[in-house]
Amino acid sequence: MDKWSLRDVVLLAFLAFLFGGVFMGADAIYAVVAAALTPLGYAPFANELLFGMWVMAAPMTTMLLRKKGSSILGECFAALAEMLYGSYFGPAVLLSGFVQGLGSEAGFMVTRYRRYDVVSLLYAAIGTTVFSFTYEYFKLGYGAYSLGMILALVVVRLLSVIFFGVVLVQLVLKLYEQAAGAKHLASR
Hints:
Layout: H1 6-37, H2 44-54, H3 57-65, H4 70-85, H5 92-110, H6 118-139, H7 147-186
């Protein structure tokens, strides 16, 4: 289970390339949402609303590969792809990707890599939220906000990560399994 095959490495590279593009799309949406929320004084919520899009690579990679370390590698390589695609966040996405991947990895560690289901995805979402929010609390200066604002930001981030990193990941995996099943039946 722990040994990486060539297929695993190719799938990891494909997912990184794919999610790097997803992250670039999230960057563009972020700019629009932040601009729309700025006059209302809610610009920080743009990051939180979309945060789950930026962390999908980690749980998706782990659910498909089922390897220790795949959350970190998936998120880091997707962040690298995002940076190479020209993200205006620049090289900072590499450190963010590492922290986000580490948080997701911590979630799978809770189950000792024995479960690959909604429970492990929820743990990964919680880990991602805690690790990333702690990091960004200092990076983005969230300490200047009131306790109520900080709690609201955490809740919105967690909901975003659950939507994108649990609900959508499960949906994609279900479609993947259906396609794999259809391919298997067609090859008979």
